[in-house]
Specification:
The complex is a heterodimer. Chain A contains 13 helices and two strands. By secondary structure, chain A is mostly helical. Chain B has a single domain, classed as MetI-like (MetI-like fold). The chains are: A mainly alpha, B mainly alpha. At the A-B interface, helix 6, helix 7, helix 11, helix 12 and helix 13 of A face helix 5, helix 6, helix 11 and helix 13 of B.
Chain lengths: ~325, ~300
């Protein structure tokens, strides 16, 4: 019952956030560019324009225009892209797999690196490797993601010529119309540099976080008792202590989603990765209003969904957290 | 709180802090005196010559002793553009942190001192804003700004837009820090004393509580300048920040990037190096300052 109440509450919050985003989207549409000019160009007379304006409902009061916008938006209709002459939402969704695979690849990389590295640094506090990892991490924090990307392109793409530095390469179309780069050798090669770049910016942060949390967990009574009970060091470390570091990792991971989306825009720009971020910047340069709005709404939706999921996972893995709204 | 002389002693005994401080000082001086010491003024059309374009650094074959770090496609010396660009990056970084500080300190003082619904409202707002990510907010706002205005209008106001957007988007960090200090201070006797003699809340907050809450503010300011410079560079690299005729380090990197493929790596590499040095020096100093000012934190870390 509590879980249902919690989900309901989160759903209401999500709807409010999406409502605000839709208002922003609508006010952009209302103020940026003239849909009529995009439609007919300059050749039509003023009288005809006024007639069309009336026809299209552009003279209606704000609220009824907004209601119409919302009605269409809920059905997934955000208007046609001026440039592609296709529904904006379809144009965005075509690019979604590219961005998703970029993020997935980098999350896989940084989880497989940051967890062992963080645990190692917590256990062997004074080894030279720990010192090296900790100093490298402050350097990592200080290099902006687009510079990492540029250095990757320059060193591995241009100078050494080991790996392709732009585009997605050959992709394989899955039955439901999803183009994946994970199933072809060429696609995988193209994924390496962008994914390493995107993971490199999150890596130092998570290594430090896991290290700090792990050190704290190992000092708790709970872990000391487990050890006193005679459990093996390995079991105490990896089952008792490590499990406690997962909570903050999930929380921070959820908080980082907005930043991660911003970083995909930067990474995609440098590697000319045909994803949503690259498309968004093109849309900005072309003043393609419907596409700009569609991007903002899709990103807002992803943000809301991820945050809700993170909250939910958080309550699942931490029995100590009471669901908001639940009785004690 | 520690005294200035103790602070200086700690500084001198820490080689990392000395190097970081030295690099930062060097970059600031270089930027501040750019018009006097730069080999040329890269934005004065009389002083640049397209014949000089695309030259490698002076020690490479084809280099010219007039241009140590080579030239870009317009014939501007890379060293000179870096000197001018560093100034713009620093100006935006510091300007944005001043905006953050003023907004954050004011709202943090109010939230901590008044408490109640004002406090919960402001902190809730801070939570939401923090989770949205400064870079994402800035990208969207600047993208709309750029789409809505003429490029020449945009170029003129870009610097103010950057300062204000990065400033407004990051106020929660200062507000939270100040609020936490205020909560620790406001029940102490000197605050009661100030209140009892009839001082208005405004004076108690600004004149009595704030001076005792400034240490953590100073600590985060350094890191925040680094963050602001990094955000500005990212925005300029995307073409949403400073225009090419008044470039920051980020816009220099943007305009050099396409030439990497034709082998002119120095147009991008040197501004990138300076940008990393600047951010790294600020981060190291910030970390050092935090350790010195907050010995408890240091112990917990070891």
């Amino acid at each position: 019952m509590h879980i249902i109440a919690f989900l309901l509450r989160r759903a209401v919050q999500a709807v409010i956030v999406m409502f605000v985003i839709s208002l922003i989207g609508f006010s952009i549409q209302d103020n940026l560019g003239d849909p009529l000019r995009e439609l007919v160009g300059q050749s039509v007379s003023e009288a005809e324009r006024d007639l069309m304006r009336e026809d299209m409902g552009l003279n209606d009061p704000f609220l009824s225009q907004y209601a119409r916008f919302l009605g269409h938006a809920v059905q997934g209709d955000l208007g046609n892209s001026y440039f592609f002459k296709r529904p904006a939402i379809a144009v965005i969704m075509d690019k979604f797999p590219a961005t998703f695979e970029l993020v997935l690849g980098s999350v896989l990389i940084f989880l497989t690196v940051s967890i062992p590295a963080g645990i190692y640094c917590a256990i062997h506090r004074n080894s030279w490797l720990t010192r090296f990892i900790m100093s490298a991490s402050i350097l990592g924090i200080s290099v902006p993601v687009f510079l990492t990307a540029i250095f990757m392109v320059w060193i591995f793409g241009v100078e050494l010529g080991w790996l392709p530095a732009y585009g997605r390469g050959a992709t394989y179309e899955l039955p439901w119309g999803w183009d994946t780069g994970f199933l072809t050798l060429d696609g995988l090669k193209h994924l390496i540099l962008p994914c390493v770049t995107l993971s490199s910016i999150m890596l130092p942060l998570f290594i430090r976080l896991i290290r700090a949390e792990m050190m704290e967990a190992m000092g708790t009574d709970y872990v000391r008792f487990a050890r006193a009970k005679g459990l093996s060091t390995t079991r105490v470390r990896y089952v008792h202590a490590f499990r406690n570091t997962l909570l903050p990792v999930v929380t921070v991971g959820g908080l980082m989603i907005g930043t991660l989306i911003a970083y995909t825009i930067l990474t995609e720009t440098v590697f000319q990765w045909p994803g949503m971020g690259f498309l968004f910047l093109e849309a900005v340069n072309r003043v393609d209003t419907p596409l700009i709005i569609a991007y903002i709404i899709v990103v807002g939706l992803i943000f809301v969904i991820v945050n809700t999921m993170v909250d939910f996972i958080y309550t699942l893995i931490n029995p100590m957290v009471k669901l908001p709204g639940a009785k004690a | 709180m520690i005294t200035w002389s103790a602070l200086l002693k700690r500084f001198i005994s820490d080689p990392v802090a000395i190097i970081a401080g030295f690099v930062l000082l060097l970059l600031i001086l270089m930027a501040a005196f750019a018009p006097l010491i730069a080999p040329q003024n890269p934005y004065d059309l009389m002083q640049i010559d397209v014949m000089d374009s695309d030259m490698p650094p002076s020690w490479k074959p084809g280099g010219d002793p007039r241009f140590w770090l080579g030239t870009d496609s317009q014939g501007r010396g890379v060293l000179s553009t870096i000197m001018y660009g560093t100034g713009i990056s620093l100006l935006i970084g510091i300007g944005a942190v001043i905006v953050q500080g003023v907004l954050g300190i004011t709202l943090g003082l109010i939230a901590g001192y008044k408490g109640g619904w004002i406090d919960s409202f402001l902190m809730r707002l801070a939570d939401i804003q923090m989770s949205l990510s400064t870079l994402m907010i800035a990208i969207i706002v600047l993208a709309l700004f750029q789409a809505a205005f003429d490029p020449s209008v945009y170029a003129e106001y870009a610097i103010f837009m950057l300062i204000f957007i990065i400033g407004i988007a990051e106020w929660p960090k200062f507000a939270r820090t100040v609020r936490a200090s205020v909560l620790g201070e406001k029940n102490k006797e000197y605050v009661d004393a100030a209140r009892v003699i009839g001082l208005p809340a405004r004076k108690v907050m600004w004149g009595h509580i704030l001076p005792n809450a400034m240490t953590p503010v100073l600590v985060i300011s350094t890191i925040q300048v680094a963050e602001a410079i990094m955000t500005e560079a990212a925005l300029s690299f995307l073409g949403l920040g400073m225009p090419v005729n008044k470039p920051s380090l980020g816009s220099l990197i943007r305009s050099g990037f396409e030439y990497i493929f034709s082998g002119s790596w120095w147009i991008t590499f040197y501004p990138a190096l300076v940008l990393i040095a600047l951010i790294l020096a600020l981060n190291l100093l910030g970390d050092w300052l935090r350790d010195v000012m907050n010995p408890k934190l240091r112990r917990g870390d070891e």
